[in-house]
Amino acid sequence: MISACMIVQDEEECLKRALDSIYDYVDEIIIIDGGSVDKTREIAVSYDKVKLFDIPFPKNFATQKNNAIEKASGDWILFLDADEYYDSYTMAALSGLVTIEEYDAYAFSRKTFIDGRLINLFDQDYQTRFFRSHCRYEANEIGISEKIVGYTNLQSCNLDIKHYKKEQWQQKDNELYWDMGHQPPAGWSKIDGKWTYTQSLDDIQSFEGWMSEPELKWLHDTAKKVPAGELIVEIGAWMGRSSAAIYLGASGKNPVITIDTWQGSPDEPEHNIAQTEDIFAKYCENIKSVGITLAEFESFPLENKCYYLVGDSLEAVERFLDKSVAWLFYDGRHTTTGENLDAWMPKMKDDGLLTGHDYFCFYEHIQQEIHKRFWIHEIHNSIWVKYMKNERLW
Predict the structure, then answer these.
(1) How far, in Å, CA of 118 to CA of 122, rounded?
(2) How would CATH label the architecture of 2-172?
(3) Which of 9-23, 27-41, 123-137, 344-358 has the lowest average pLDDT?
(4) Class of domain 201-387
(5) 203 or 68, which is more confident?
(6) Is the confidence at residue 212, as pLDDT, over 80?
(7) 199: which residues sit within 8 A by CB, 6+ positions away?
(8) What CA–CA distance (Å, rounded) separates 256 from 259?
(9) Helices 241-250 and 279-289 sit at what angle, rounded to 10 degrees?
(10) SS3 assignment, position 143
(11) How open is the CA angle 231-325-388, to the nearest 5 degrees?
C-alpha cells in the first residue's frame, strides 16, 4: 500500500495539479493543513482518497511532515509539496520500486522552474521522496531544511519531480522563513524589499568578460564546497562575470572579498575600454542584476556577505592576516602574477585552495611564474589549481 503525504497552507493555486498527478497511483492521500484561509481545504476534500487533518504549523517543517507520515496507513510513503507534481512515467515506476527488497528509500531528481524558467540547470537536486513508512524527517537546527533518516539503503533514480513555482508563491515562502527568524533558501536575496532569485549561471552569460561557461561552472561549484564561514578572496573582477559565479556558489555561507582597481591593466590592450567607461559601475550593475547585495570592505571581522575592495592587490594584501584565506582566485594583472603569488601565499590557510586564471594564454610568463614556486594539481580549461597541503581536503 502506498500513502501519499503532503503538508499544505494556502495552496489553492497549485494543489489540484499535484493531486491529479498522483491520484491514480496511490491508495490514500494524507494532507496536513497548517491553517489555510483560501480554498485549499475545499479542493483537498473533493478527492475521495484524501484524508485531511488540521494541525497548526509548528514552525518546523520536519515536525509537520512527520505528522503526516504518522497518519498514513501505507507501507510506503510518497511525499510531495503542493507546488510539485510527478509525471506519469515516474508514478508508473513506483509499483516496480516497491518490489526491490534491497532498497527502502529512493531519491528523485527535482527540476525547479520559476515562472517557467529552469533555475537549477547546473545543479543536481536529488530529493528523498519515496521511502518505507518507518522513516522520518529530521530537521536541521533552525527547522527550515529537513532530511529523511531511518533508511538502510537509499537509491537515486533517474525519475523526476517537477517543481513549478510562480515568483509570487516564492515571495510568500520567503516571508514565512523570514518571519521564523531565518534566511530563505539558498539563492534568494532581498533587494529593495523584494525577494529575488540569484542562483542561476544563465543570468551572467551576457556579462562582458573572458571566462568560459565551463570555467564559470567550476568557480560556482568550488565556491559551494568552501566550508561555511571560511574566507574567499577574488583578485581581478572586471565587469563581474567570474565574481557572480563565485558569489552565487557561496550563496551567503561565506564572506567573499573581491579586489580590483577596476581601471584595467595599462599594458593589456583588451582593457583599453576602461579609459572611456566606468568599469566599476558596470561591475556593480551586473552583480546587482543577479540579486547579490554588495558591501564595501572596511575591516575584519566579516559577515557572510559579498564585499568589494577598490585598490591594488599588492597593497590590499597587508590588510589580511596570515593563514586567513581558504580560497584565493587570482585573475589580476598578468605582469605581476609572481609578485602577487609571493605576497598572498602566506595568507593562505594550510588546507586552502590557491587558484588562478589564464594558465593557457598568450601571456606565457604566467606558467613560468607559477612553476618557479610550485607544481599545480589540476587544470580546468585555463584555471590552474594548487592545494596548499598537496591534497584537496574539501
Answers:
(1) 10
(2) Alpha-Beta Complex (3.90)
(3) 123-137
(4) alpha beta
(5) 68
(6) yes
(7) 119, 120, 123, 186, 187, 248, 251
(8) 10
(9) 40
(10) coil
(11) 130
What would the pLDDT profile of 213-235 be if each residue is shown by its tens digit? 889 989 999 998 999 999 999 99
Q: Counting every residue, how long is the chain?
A: 394
| Tens digits of residue pLDDT in 55-76 | 999 888 899 999 999 999 999 9
Please report, to the nearest 10 degrees, the dihedral formed by the alpha carbons of residues 107, 109, 110, 112 taken in order: 160
Helix (H) or strand (E) holding 155: strand 154-165
Domain boundaries, the chain: 2-172, 201-387
**CA–CA gap between residue 185 and residue 182 (Å, rounded):** 9
What is residue 292's predicted lDDT score, i.e. its pLDDT?
85
Do 2-172 and 201-387 fold alike per CATH? no
Q: Which residue in 55, 60, 33 sits closest to 144, CA to CA?
A: 60
* 82, three cell numbers: 503542493
Which residue shows C-alpha cell 509525471?
87
357: helix, strand or coil: coil
